[in-house]
Amino acid sequence: MSKTGASTEVRQFTVGEDDDGIRLDRWFKRHLPQIGFGMVSKWARTGQVRVDGKRAKPDDRLETGQVLRVPPGGETPGGRKPKPRRELTADEIAEAHAMVIKETPSAIIFNKPPGLATQGGSKTTRHVDGLLDAFVDDEDDPRPRLVHRLDKDTSGVLLVAKTPGSAAHFSKRFSGRSARKVYWALVVGVPAVLEGTIDAPLAKQPGSGGEKMHVDEENGALAKTKYRVVDKAGHKAAWVELEPLTGRTHQLRVHLAAIGHPIVGDGKYGGKDAFLTGSVSRKMHLHARRLRIDAPKSDGGGKIDVTAELPEHFAGSMEHLGFDLSLSTAKPLNFDPPERTPAEKKQAARQHAKQYRKSRKGERRSRGPAAQGKLGKKSGGRPARKTAPKKDGRR
Protein backbone atom coordinates (compact mmCIF):
# COMPACT_ATOMS: atom_id res chain seq x y z
CA MET A 1 0.00 0.00 0.00
CA SER A 2 1.29 3.44 -0.94
CA LYS A 3 -0.26 6.70 0.20
CA THR A 4 -0.11 10.47 -0.25
CA GLY A 5 -1.46 13.34 1.85
CA ALA A 6 -1.99 13.76 5.60
CA SER A 7 -4.85 13.11 8.04
CA THR A 8 -6.01 16.75 7.79
CA GLU A 9 -6.29 16.52 4.01
CA VAL A 10 -7.89 14.19 1.51
CA ARG A 11 -5.75 11.06 1.37
CA GLN A 12 -5.08 8.68 -1.50
CA PHE A 13 -3.98 5.06 -1.13
CA THR A 14 -2.95 2.62 -3.86
CA VAL A 15 -4.13 -0.95 -3.25
CA GLY A 16 -1.17 -3.31 -3.01
CA GLU A 17 -0.98 -6.91 -4.16
CA ASP A 18 -1.30 -8.04 -0.54
CA ASP A 19 -4.81 -6.50 -0.40
CA ASP A 20 -6.08 -7.86 -3.71
CA GLY A 21 -9.66 -9.16 -3.27
CA ILE A 22 -10.21 -7.67 0.19
CA ARG A 23 -13.47 -5.89 1.10
CA LEU A 24 -13.33 -2.11 1.46
CA ASP A 25 -14.36 -2.20 5.14
CA ARG A 26 -11.70 -4.85 5.85
CA TRP A 27 -9.11 -2.63 4.15
CA PHE A 28 -9.89 0.14 6.64
CA LYS A 29 -9.64 -2.34 9.53
CA ARG A 30 -6.17 -3.35 8.33
CA HIS A 31 -4.68 0.03 7.46
CA LEU A 32 -6.73 2.69 9.28
CA PRO A 33 -8.02 0.85 12.37
CA GLN A 34 -8.69 4.13 14.17
CA ILE A 35 -11.56 4.76 11.74
CA GLY A 36 -14.62 2.78 12.82
CA PHE A 37 -17.03 0.85 10.61
CA GLY A 38 -19.77 3.41 11.21
CA MET A 39 -17.65 6.20 9.77
CA VAL A 40 -16.68 4.09 6.74
CA SER A 41 -20.38 3.37 6.10
CA LYS A 42 -21.23 7.08 6.38
CA TRP A 43 -18.47 8.04 3.95
CA ALA A 44 -19.71 5.39 1.51
CA ARG A 45 -23.33 6.62 1.72
CA THR A 46 -22.31 10.24 1.13
CA GLY A 47 -19.81 9.41 -1.63
CA GLN A 48 -16.81 10.74 0.28
CA VAL A 49 -14.81 7.50 -0.01
CA ARG A 50 -14.18 6.53 -3.61
CA VAL A 51 -12.36 3.83 -5.56
CA ASP A 52 -10.79 4.96 -8.86
CA GLY A 53 -13.01 8.05 -8.65
CA LYS A 54 -16.26 6.06 -8.30
CA ARG A 55 -18.58 5.68 -5.35
CA ALA A 56 -18.00 2.50 -3.35
CA LYS A 57 -19.83 0.37 -0.79
CA PRO A 58 -18.25 -1.18 2.33
CA ASP A 59 -18.58 -4.72 0.90
CA ASP A 60 -17.01 -3.89 -2.49
CA ARG A 61 -13.90 -5.94 -3.30
CA LEU A 62 -10.67 -4.12 -4.09
CA GLU A 63 -8.14 -4.93 -6.79
CA THR A 64 -4.40 -4.37 -6.96
CA GLY A 65 -3.55 -0.93 -8.34
CA GLN A 66 -6.87 0.74 -7.56
CA VAL A 67 -6.71 4.16 -5.87
CA LEU A 68 -8.75 4.90 -2.75
CA ARG A 69 -9.85 8.44 -1.93
CA VAL A 70 -10.22 8.82 1.84
CA PRO A 71 -11.51 12.10 3.37
CA PRO A 72 -9.59 13.77 6.21
CA GLY A 73 -10.07 12.82 9.84
CA GLY A 74 -12.62 10.17 10.71
CA GLU A 75 -11.14 8.96 13.99
CA THR A 76 -14.02 7.77 16.18
CA PRO A 77 -14.26 6.57 19.80
CA GLY A 78 -15.22 3.14 18.51
CA GLY A 79 -12.20 2.90 16.25
CA ARG A 80 -9.28 0.69 17.22
CA LYS A 81 -5.98 2.24 18.16
CA PRO A 82 -2.85 0.80 16.56
CA LYS A 83 -0.98 -1.47 18.96
CA PRO A 84 1.94 0.49 20.45
CA ARG A 85 5.38 -0.81 19.55
CA ARG A 86 7.52 -2.15 22.39
CA GLU A 87 11.13 -1.03 22.62
CA LEU A 88 13.28 -4.17 22.56
CA THR A 89 16.72 -4.57 24.08
CA ALA A 90 19.73 -5.53 21.97
CA ASP A 91 19.64 -9.03 23.50
CA GLU A 92 15.95 -9.47 22.62
CA ILE A 93 16.55 -8.39 19.03
CA ALA A 94 19.46 -10.83 18.75
CA GLU A 95 17.33 -13.61 20.26
CA ALA A 96 14.54 -12.98 17.74
CA HIS A 97 16.85 -13.05 14.73
CA ALA A 98 18.69 -16.16 15.99
CA MET A 99 15.44 -18.15 15.76
CA VAL A 100 14.89 -17.41 12.04
CA ILE A 101 15.43 -20.38 9.71
CA LYS A 102 13.76 -18.92 6.58
CA GLU A 103 12.29 -15.62 5.42
CA THR A 104 10.12 -14.91 2.38
CA PRO A 105 8.28 -11.75 1.23
CA SER A 106 5.21 -13.02 3.11
CA ALA A 107 6.52 -14.94 6.12
CA ILE A 108 9.19 -15.39 8.76
CA ILE A 109 9.73 -19.00 9.87
CA PHE A 110 11.27 -19.63 13.28
CA ASN A 111 12.74 -22.65 15.00
CA LYS A 112 11.13 -21.96 18.38
CA PRO A 113 13.17 -23.21 21.33
CA PRO A 114 11.49 -25.18 24.13
CA GLY A 115 10.49 -23.11 27.15
CA LEU A 116 9.55 -20.00 25.12
CA ALA A 117 5.80 -19.32 24.94
CA THR A 118 4.27 -18.41 21.58
CA GLN A 119 2.00 -15.75 23.03
CA GLY A 120 1.59 -13.88 26.29
CA GLY A 121 -0.86 -14.78 29.02
CA SER A 122 -1.28 -14.91 32.77
CA LYS A 123 2.18 -14.41 34.29
CA THR A 124 3.78 -14.93 30.85
CA THR A 125 5.79 -11.90 29.80
CA ARG A 126 8.45 -13.56 27.63
CA HIS A 127 7.09 -14.92 24.36
CA VAL A 128 7.58 -14.98 20.57
CA ASP A 129 4.81 -12.44 19.95
CA GLY A 130 6.64 -9.97 22.17
CA LEU A 131 9.78 -10.28 20.02
CA LEU A 132 8.13 -9.59 16.65
CA ASP A 133 8.83 -5.85 16.81
CA ALA A 134 12.44 -6.80 16.06
CA PHE A 135 11.35 -7.25 12.42
CA VAL A 136 9.71 -3.82 11.99
CA ASP A 137 12.06 -1.20 10.53
CA ASP A 138 9.55 1.64 10.06
CA GLU A 139 6.66 2.56 12.34
CA ASP A 140 4.34 2.60 9.29
CA ASP A 141 5.28 -0.99 8.39
CA PRO A 142 2.79 -3.70 9.41
CA ARG A 143 3.75 -5.72 12.47
CA PRO A 144 4.26 -9.48 11.83
CA ARG A 145 1.35 -11.61 13.02
CA LEU A 146 1.05 -15.07 14.56
CA VAL A 147 -1.12 -17.45 12.50
CA HIS A 148 -0.68 -20.68 14.50
CA ARG A 149 0.69 -21.77 17.87
CA LEU A 150 3.09 -24.19 19.56
CA ASP A 151 2.92 -25.15 23.22
CA LYS A 152 5.52 -23.48 25.43
CA ASP A 153 7.55 -26.69 25.87
CA THR A 154 7.19 -27.80 22.24
CA SER A 155 10.03 -26.77 19.94
CA GLY A 156 10.26 -26.41 16.18
CA VAL A 157 8.74 -24.76 13.11
CA LEU A 158 6.61 -21.68 13.80
CA LEU A 159 5.41 -19.53 10.88
CA VAL A 160 4.64 -15.82 11.33
CA ALA A 161 2.98 -13.72 8.61
CA LYS A 162 4.68 -10.46 7.65
CA THR A 163 1.59 -8.62 6.35
CA PRO A 164 -2.16 -8.62 7.03
CA GLY A 165 -2.85 -10.15 3.61
CA SER A 166 -0.43 -13.02 4.08
CA ALA A 167 -1.83 -13.54 7.60
CA ALA A 168 -5.30 -14.09 6.10
CA HIS A 169 -3.83 -16.44 3.47
CA PHE A 170 -1.93 -18.61 5.96
CA SER A 171 -4.78 -18.64 8.49
CA LYS A 172 -7.07 -20.13 5.84
CA ARG A 173 -4.51 -22.85 5.07
CA PHE A 174 -4.14 -23.80 8.72
CA SER A 175 -7.88 -23.75 9.46
CA GLY A 176 -8.63 -25.60 6.21
CA ARG A 177 -6.06 -28.32 7.06
CA SER A 178 -4.18 -27.93 3.76
CA ALA A 179 -1.01 -27.05 5.70
CA ARG A 180 0.98 -30.23 6.42
CA LYS A 181 2.87 -30.54 9.71
CA VAL A 182 5.17 -33.30 10.93
CA TYR A 183 6.19 -33.68 14.56
CA TRP A 184 8.85 -35.89 16.11
CA ALA A 185 8.35 -37.32 19.57
CA LEU A 186 10.06 -39.72 21.93
CA VAL A 187 7.48 -41.83 23.76
CA VAL A 188 7.68 -44.18 26.69
CA GLY A 189 7.46 -47.82 25.58
CA VAL A 190 6.64 -49.05 22.07
CA PRO A 191 3.12 -49.00 20.57
CA ALA A 192 1.89 -52.49 19.66
CA VAL A 193 0.64 -51.17 16.31
CA LEU A 194 3.61 -49.51 14.63
CA GLU A 195 1.62 -47.31 12.24
CA GLY A 196 -1.94 -46.06 12.33
CA THR A 197 -4.40 -43.30 13.19
CA ILE A 198 -5.50 -42.28 16.68
CA ASP A 199 -9.15 -41.18 16.51
CA ALA A 200 -10.19 -39.85 19.93
CA PRO A 201 -12.44 -36.78 20.47
CA LEU A 202 -11.04 -34.21 22.89
CA ALA A 203 -12.61 -31.76 25.35
CA LYS A 204 -11.48 -29.55 28.22
CA GLN A 205 -11.09 -31.57 31.40
CA PRO A 206 -13.55 -30.44 34.08
CA GLY A 207 -11.94 -28.87 37.12
CA SER A 208 -8.73 -27.94 35.30
CA GLY A 209 -9.81 -24.43 34.41
CA GLY A 210 -9.39 -25.25 30.72
CA GLU A 211 -5.68 -25.86 31.18
CA LYS A 212 -5.94 -29.59 30.50
CA MET A 213 -7.65 -31.71 27.85
CA HIS A 214 -8.95 -35.27 27.96
CA VAL A 215 -10.59 -37.85 25.71
CA ASP A 216 -14.38 -37.41 25.70
CA GLU A 217 -16.18 -39.82 23.38
CA GLU A 218 -19.60 -38.24 23.94
CA ASN A 219 -19.01 -34.49 23.95
CA GLY A 220 -15.47 -34.06 22.62
CA ALA A 221 -14.49 -32.37 19.36
CA LEU A 222 -13.19 -34.52 16.49
CA ALA A 223 -9.44 -35.16 16.84
CA LYS A 224 -7.30 -37.41 14.63
CA THR A 225 -3.56 -38.03 14.58
CA LYS A 226 -1.56 -40.17 12.16
CA TYR A 227 1.55 -41.77 13.61
CA ARG A 228 4.42 -44.02 12.60
CA VAL A 229 7.07 -45.65 14.78
CA VAL A 230 10.37 -44.83 13.06
CA ASP A 231 12.62 -46.79 15.44
CA LYS A 232 12.62 -48.22 18.95
CA ALA A 233 15.12 -48.62 21.78
CA GLY A 234 14.21 -52.10 22.97
CA HIS A 235 11.00 -51.88 24.98
CA LYS A 236 12.13 -48.72 26.73
CA ALA A 237 11.21 -45.98 24.24
CA ALA A 238 10.22 -45.30 20.66
CA TRP A 239 10.85 -42.53 18.17
CA VAL A 240 7.51 -41.58 16.61
CA GLU A 241 6.63 -39.41 13.63
CA LEU A 242 3.26 -37.66 13.97
CA GLU A 243 0.93 -35.76 11.68
CA PRO A 244 -2.09 -34.05 13.25
CA LEU A 245 -5.10 -34.19 10.94
CA THR A 246 -6.98 -31.79 13.23
CA GLY A 247 -5.70 -28.99 15.44
CA ARG A 248 -7.01 -29.42 18.98
CA THR A 249 -5.25 -28.06 22.05
CA HIS A 250 -2.54 -30.47 23.30
CA GLN A 251 -3.82 -33.02 20.76
CA LEU A 252 -0.60 -34.98 20.22
CA ARG A 253 0.20 -35.10 23.93
CA VAL A 254 -3.27 -36.33 24.94
CA HIS A 255 -3.51 -38.87 22.10
CA LEU A 256 -0.17 -40.51 22.87
CA ALA A 257 -0.94 -40.66 26.59
CA ALA A 258 -4.36 -42.14 25.76
CA ILE A 259 -2.79 -45.14 23.97
CA GLY A 260 -0.48 -45.73 26.93
CA HIS A 261 2.69 -44.17 25.49
CA PRO A 262 3.09 -40.62 26.84
CA ILE A 263 5.68 -38.27 25.40
CA VAL A 264 8.94 -38.43 27.35
CA GLY A 265 9.04 -35.48 29.74
CA ASP A 266 5.31 -34.71 29.54
CA GLY A 267 4.41 -34.98 33.21
CA LYS A 268 1.15 -33.08 32.65
CA TYR A 269 -0.40 -35.96 30.72
CA GLY A 270 1.89 -38.86 31.53
CA GLY A 271 2.56 -38.29 35.23
CA LYS A 272 5.65 -39.87 36.74
CA ASP A 273 5.60 -42.59 34.06
CA ALA A 274 6.57 -39.99 31.44
CA PHE A 275 10.16 -39.79 32.66
CA LEU A 276 12.98 -42.18 31.79
CA THR A 277 15.96 -42.95 33.97
CA GLY A 278 19.58 -42.46 32.93
CA SER A 279 20.86 -39.68 30.69
CA VAL A 280 17.53 -38.92 28.95
CA SER A 281 16.49 -35.32 29.62
CA ARG A 282 13.42 -34.62 31.74
CA LYS A 283 12.31 -31.90 29.31
CA MET A 284 9.45 -32.64 26.93
CA HIS A 285 10.47 -34.40 23.72
CA LEU A 286 8.00 -33.02 21.16
CA HIS A 287 9.33 -31.14 18.15
CA ALA A 288 7.57 -29.57 15.13
CA ARG A 289 9.99 -30.99 12.59
CA ARG A 290 8.55 -29.88 9.25
CA LEU A 291 5.92 -27.60 7.69
CA ARG A 292 4.74 -27.47 4.11
CA ILE A 293 2.17 -24.83 3.17
CA ASP A 294 0.95 -23.02 0.04
CA ALA A 295 2.72 -19.70 -0.49
CA PRO A 296 0.69 -16.57 -1.36
CA LYS A 297 0.90 -14.75 -4.68
CA SER A 298 3.33 -12.23 -3.22
CA ASP A 299 5.82 -15.11 -2.92
CA GLY A 300 5.17 -16.22 -6.49
CA GLY A 301 2.96 -19.14 -5.40
CA GLY A 302 4.33 -22.63 -4.98
CA LYS A 303 5.12 -24.13 -1.56
CA ILE A 304 6.94 -23.02 1.55
CA ASP A 305 8.69 -26.13 2.85
CA VAL A 306 10.88 -25.87 5.96
CA THR A 307 12.56 -28.25 8.40
CA ALA A 308 13.74 -27.36 11.91
CA GLU A 309 16.74 -28.93 13.66
CA LEU A 310 16.22 -30.63 17.02
CA PRO A 311 16.94 -28.70 20.22
CA GLU A 312 19.98 -29.74 22.22
CA HIS A 313 18.19 -31.86 24.84
CA PHE A 314 16.17 -33.78 22.20
CA ALA A 315 19.21 -34.42 20.00
CA GLY A 316 21.15 -35.64 23.05
CA SER A 317 18.41 -38.11 23.99
CA MET A 318 18.23 -39.42 20.42
CA GLU A 319 21.98 -40.04 20.45
CA HIS A 320 21.87 -41.65 23.90
CA LEU A 321 19.14 -44.08 22.76
CA GLY A 322 21.04 -44.91 19.56
CA PHE A 323 18.56 -43.53 17.00
CA ASP A 324 19.79 -42.77 13.49
CA LEU A 325 18.19 -39.53 12.22
CA SER A 326 18.60 -40.60 8.60
CA LEU A 327 15.85 -43.21 9.09
CA SER A 328 13.23 -40.49 8.73
CA THR A 329 12.69 -38.21 5.77
CA ALA A 330 10.43 -35.97 7.90
CA LYS A 331 7.74 -36.16 5.24
CA PRO A 332 4.13 -36.04 6.44
CA LEU A 333 2.47 -39.43 6.27
CA ASN A 334 -0.14 -38.36 3.72
CA PHE A 335 1.93 -36.14 1.47
CA ASP A 336 1.33 -36.94 -2.17
CA PRO A 337 4.06 -39.43 -3.20
CA PRO A 338 6.09 -38.70 -6.34
CA GLU A 339 4.57 -40.06 -9.54
CA ARG A 340 6.04 -43.49 -10.35
CA THR A 341 7.02 -44.63 -13.82
CA PRO A 342 5.18 -47.61 -15.41
CA ALA A 343 8.24 -49.79 -14.78
CA GLU A 344 8.29 -48.80 -11.10
CA LYS A 345 4.56 -49.55 -10.76
CA LYS A 346 5.07 -52.98 -12.37
CA GLN A 347 7.97 -53.74 -10.05
CA ALA A 348 5.92 -52.68 -7.02
CA ALA A 349 3.06 -54.98 -8.10
CA ARG A 350 5.47 -57.91 -8.45
CA GLN A 351 6.93 -57.23 -5.03
CA HIS A 352 3.45 -57.06 -3.49
CA ALA A 353 2.47 -60.38 -5.12
CA LYS A 354 5.70 -61.99 -3.90
CA GLN A 355 5.08 -60.83 -0.33
CA TYR A 356 1.48 -62.07 -0.50
CA ARG A 357 2.54 -65.54 -1.67
CA LYS A 358 5.17 -65.64 1.06
CA SER A 359 2.60 -64.76 3.73
CA ARG A 360 0.24 -67.48 2.49
CA LYS A 361 2.96 -70.14 2.33
CA GLY A 362 2.91 -70.83 6.06
CA GLU A 363 -0.89 -70.91 6.00
CA ARG A 364 -0.95 -73.61 3.32
CA ARG A 365 1.58 -75.71 5.21
CA SER A 366 -0.46 -75.52 8.42
CA ARG A 367 -3.43 -77.10 6.67
CA GLY A 368 -1.46 -80.26 5.94
CA PRO A 369 -1.28 -82.31 2.71
CA ALA A 370 -4.68 -83.94 3.27
CA ALA A 371 -6.47 -80.60 3.40
CA GLN A 372 -4.64 -79.34 0.32
CA GLY A 373 -5.48 -82.43 -1.71
CA LYS A 374 -9.20 -82.61 -0.97
CA LEU A 375 -10.78 -79.59 -2.57
CA GLY A 376 -14.28 -80.83 -1.82
CA LYS A 377 -13.73 -80.61 1.95
CA LYS A 378 -13.84 -77.61 4.31
CA SER A 379 -10.89 -76.63 6.51
CA GLY A 380 -12.36 -78.67 9.37
CA GLY A 381 -11.94 -81.89 7.35
CA ARG A 382 -15.64 -82.60 6.92
CA PRO A 383 -17.06 -82.94 3.39
CA ALA A 384 -18.65 -79.78 2.05
CA ARG A 385 -22.43 -80.01 1.80
CA LYS A 386 -23.66 -80.28 -1.77
CA THR A 387 -26.65 -78.29 -2.91
CA ALA A 388 -29.00 -79.14 -5.73
CA PRO A 389 -28.77 -76.85 -8.76
CA LYS A 390 -31.54 -74.30 -9.16
CA LYS A 391 -33.79 -74.30 -12.20
CA ASP A 392 -31.82 -71.57 -13.94
CA GLY A 393 -28.57 -73.52 -13.48
CA ARG A 394 -27.25 -71.44 -10.61
CA ARG A 395 -26.33 -72.86 -7.21
Automatic annotation (TrEMBL):
The reaction(s) this protein catalyses: a uridine in RNA = a pseudouridine in RNA; uridine(1911/1915/1917) in 23S rRNA = pseudouridine(1911/1915/1917) in 23S rRNA
Compositionally biased intervals (Basic and acidic residues): 52-63, 337-347
Biased composition (Basic residues): 348-364, 375-388
Matches recorded under Pfam families: PseudoU_synth_2 (PF00849)
CDD domains (alphabetical): PseudoU_synth_RluA_like
Domain (Pseudouridine synthase RsuA/RluA-like): residue spans on this chain: 108-258
GO molecular function: 23S rRNA pseudouridine(1911/1915/1917) synthase activity; RNA binding
SUPFAM superfamilies found in the cross-reference section: Alpha-L RNA-binding motif, Pseudouridine synthase
Alphabetical UniProt keywords: Isomerase, RNA-binding
Annotated region described as Disordered, given as residue ranges: 52-85, 332-395
Active site: D151
Domain of life per record: Bacteria
GO biological process entries: enzyme-directed rRNA pseudouridine synthesis
Function: Responsible for synthesis of pseudouridine from uracil.
Family: Belongs to the pseudouridine synthase RluA family.
Name of the protein this chain belongs to: Pseudouridine synthase
Organism: Altererythrobacter lutimaris
